[in-house]
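Subject: mismatched residue count in predicted assembly?

I count 563 residues in my input, but I want to confirm that the predicted structure covers every chain. Input:
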Amino acid sequence: MKIEVQHLSCIYNRGTAGEVRALDDISFTIESGSFTGIIGHTGSGKSTLVQHLNGLMKPFSGKVLLGDTDIGASGVHMAEIRRRVGLVFQYPEYQLFEETVAEDIAFGPKNMGLDEQEQEDRVREAMATVGLDYAEFASRSPFELSGGQKRRVAIAGVIAMRPDVLILDEPAAGLDPAAHREMLRMISRFHQERGCTILLVSHNMDDVAEYCGQVLVMDQGKLLYSGTPREVFAHREELEAIGLGLPAGAELLHLMNQRGAEPGGKGALTDAEAAAAVLEWLGKQETC
Amino acid sequence: MLRDITLGQYYPVDSVIHRLDPRVKIIAVFTWLVLIFFIRDFTGYIFVTAVLAVVTAVSRVPVRFMARGMRPILFILLFTFVINLITYPGTVLARLGPVTITDTGLQQAVFIAIRLILLIFGTSLLTYTTKPVGLTDGFEAILSPLSRIGVPSHEIAMMMSIALRFIPTLLSEADKTMKAQQARGADFESGGLIHRARSMMPLLIPLFVNAFRMAADLAMAMEARCYHGGKGRTRLHPMKFAARDYAACALLILFAVLVIVQSRGLLPIPQIWKL
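Triage response: the counts match. Full output below for your records.
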């Protein structure tokens, strides 16, 4: 599902001493079925932005179009918007509340008014997607699971609503490296299998470079850059100035270039691309 | 929605009221609470409301902001008003089935409503103009004479400051959880009373779990920094009385005397609508 944001602004604590302009005239388009990353340092407005995309926050000014629907317009069915745009908050494991994993995941489908059989099908499907075995976990209490498992339960709770757009706010924050990799692979798999539009809010430049087709860079409530990872990460100095950086691979090539070695590999971003560039350069060195 | 709860928050501007010694402000608020109950007529209300208005203006906390803080207690206000209105005997003004409104009832209802509003506005001014740290230090200083007879004044003050400190944290936590459940289609606004109470479960359970988690984390962090209670602790900002604090005390005493004298009918001005 296509998302179009036009001149969106948002102001917190209007008219008081603590007034903050959280979003300032933001416009962009996200194509249906794409995988988009949103980066920006803490407080740049990423979380506020994503809350506008499923109608949890109303635009102060500007528009959010979901397909052809203006979600700020009166008479729009909010429950339907929230079903179509699934939002997984930061540390979603803190929102679990039911007695069993299955019941917690079924909360969304239940609110949609689905019958019990359909609810169970959705729970099974969602658990399979996030890699939790139904027989093993369905009847356990979510509070006795490990942190990573809890998070997968919480994400399954959103996936079970079969959203057309899935927004994840730092889904890998606080996970160990193995769980981090697994989480991103899972999201990528979900994206490919379902053709679901994905928005990934992240602090991890490597993830963004590896998985995203489009990147939005936020700074102080403004949209600073938008484009492919290659276009965005070409602005190395500007990104560093706002507390971001390059993916590790690109950073390595940059440092090598700075020190006089010239492995080339211009535009390489990920570890794999950088490794290939360095190997090629080493090969050349050896031959001549 | 939860962002609207301003009651008990600190409003960060600079004013004479903000700079007053917390001890003075705490004593002033307690005096205010007691004095409000002395008042028996509308002349008294007009006088104290005028004083409150002046103090509020000096504090530079916008009235609109304070009024927004009143919203959560509007229900209680309305409830007491209605109960008072229909439960007093006296000359009947209006009748609706078994419900009668009497002149004393009306007077009592208006009186209590004004009293509640004044109480809340007055006390909220304390928290709007005093940082939690100041409040706690003030309370501790005021309670400290009692520690000789075994009252754990430091511990009480510390518990208070932690409670105050966590109000905004819990509010933002509640806001976040509410949004997360709304994103899963939860509906907190429609339905009957029972349905609504039930629909709060997805909000309350995570909130409780998180509150306990935060409490445990905080206890651990305090112990890691060798917290062991009040004994031998020194202060970063020792409280000192300045000239403005003495002046404020003098004004407070003057105010208290005026209110008491007026409420006894000893002033040569008429007491309007005396109860």
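Chain A touches chain B through 28 residues (CB under 8 Å). Marking this ticket as 'not a bug'.
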